[in-house]
Amino acid sequence: MRDLEAIKGSRIYGRRQGPALSATRQARLDKWLPKLAIATPGPTAVHPGDYFPSAMRDYWLEIGFGKGEHLAAQARVNPDIGMIGCEPFLNGVSGLVDLVDSEELKNIRIFTDDARLLMDSLPEQSLGRAFILFPDPWPKARHHKRRMVCPGNIAVLSRILKDGAELRIATDHMEYCRWIMAHMLENPDFVWISDQPGDWQNRPGDWPRSRYEIKSLAQGRKSSYLRFVRRPRQG
Ligand SMILES: C[S@@+](CC[C@H](N)C(=O)[O-])C[C@H]1O[C@@H](n2cnc3c(N)ncnc32)[C@H](O)[C@@H]1O
Question: Which residue, by CA, sits nearest to atom 7 of ligand 1?
Answer without folding.
Answer: 212
